Amino acid sequence: MPYPKAAPDGTIGAMTDLTDLELLHELAGTAETEVDRHLRHAVDWHPHDYVPWSRGQDFAALGGRDFEESDSDLSPVARAALVMNLLTEDNLPSYHREIAENFSLDGAWGYWVHRWTAEEARHSIVLRDYLTVTRGVDPVELEDLRMTQMQHGFAPGMNSMLLSVSYVTFQELATRISHRNTAAVCDDPIAERMLGRVAADENLHMLFYRNILSAAIELAPEQALAAVYTVLTNFAMPGSALPHFRRDAVLMAKHGIYDLRQHRDAVVLPVLRTWKLFDRTDLGGEAARMRDLICSFADELDAKAIRFEESRDRALARDAARRERAVAGTAVR
């Protein structure tokens, strides 16, 4: 068996690299366990139950009227977040291709690839139906963005099993946080219920990948931790190639939907702590070096988050001052 052997000092880390096929074979039992766990906890739900159909009306092509800005009850930040979350979910064919190529379509791996894809499809269905029926955003602009997103595809360069599972571990948790925080700014109990349901799915997906990677760290610590470090230091959300992504991401960060602090404290650190990465004393050689680099990177994220928070506070203070001056000027007139 290709498990790492302990050195005389009790540390593990040095071993011959395993191929993707060897990793998939050795982790097949873990995949089966995780599929079984997922099926025990997953909730079957139907997108139509989360959409307020009575608020819908025909568009011009069917004798109604097309979207107008005044139709939307959503704030600019809620609209940006919902569109970003939907477009992230939209690129499902690319995601399916990525995990199918890096995992396998055999056994538990194949079952998971198809089950995960089917569950993720619900998310894009329910988000689009909600936004269209409530006229939350311009459906023409939304469709144009969908076409741009899907034609661009998604190829994050995670061309190995360990890189792929590392990426989705953190990305699924990041998406869960984004959905939860978006619900808080929508000012609509229906949207809050819908996004809570989607976020619960994302959490279950994250658990599958996180637990697979936990087993991989025990199996091939050098390779697994190198993959984690590569993903963390190059992490980008799937929608990063979209037009206006930076603008909308800044808006979302400014209003606390997803920012560097949340990325570090609610995504990166919880996963690393689950793996007990900060406390392990049994890693040696390259595995220990990669662990130290990951811990150093977490510290760097903290420093960057502090700088961002200070900048955000100054920007919010300037915005508040401008509003106060505008109100005062109106009162004088």
From TrEMBL:
> What sections of the protein cross the membrane?
none
Q: Which cofactor does it need?
A: Fe cation; Fe(2+)
Which positions does UniProt annotate for Fe cation 2 binding?
E120, E172, E202, H205
**Which domain of life does the UniProt lineage start with?**
Bacteria
Q: List ligand-binding residues for Fe cation 1.
A: E89, E120, H123, E202
User: What biological-process GO terms show up in the record?
Assistant: fatty acid biosynthetic process
Q: Which GO terms describe its molecular function?
A: metal ion binding; stearoyl-[ACP] desaturase activity
| CDD domains registered for this protein in UniProt | Acyl_ACP_Desat
Query: Can you quote the record's cofactor note?
Result: Binds 2 iron ions per subunit.
Cellular component, GO, one term: cytosol
Q: What's this protein's family per the entry? A: Belongs to the fatty acid desaturase type 2 family.
Q: How does it assemble?
A: Homodimer.
Protein name as catalogued: Fatty acid desaturase type 2
